Amino acid sequence: MAIVNLFFKSLVMSDNIFYILLFLIGNKSRIYFVRIMSRIKRGLNNSWLFFSFLTTLILLNS
What we know:
Elements: H1 2-13, H2 15-25, H3 30-41, H4 47-61
């Protein structure tokens, strides 16, 4: 789990992955996605929870 957490934190540092995920999710969940990403970017320790939530959003909207 620590590896996943580290991996996701490195993704959050990259602005490119933010825009790629934003594009994948689509218009429906964009507002929620932006709110979640801003919370993660503030440096939460349990970012893997949000990562799994984002993955669920992506799967639901694909």
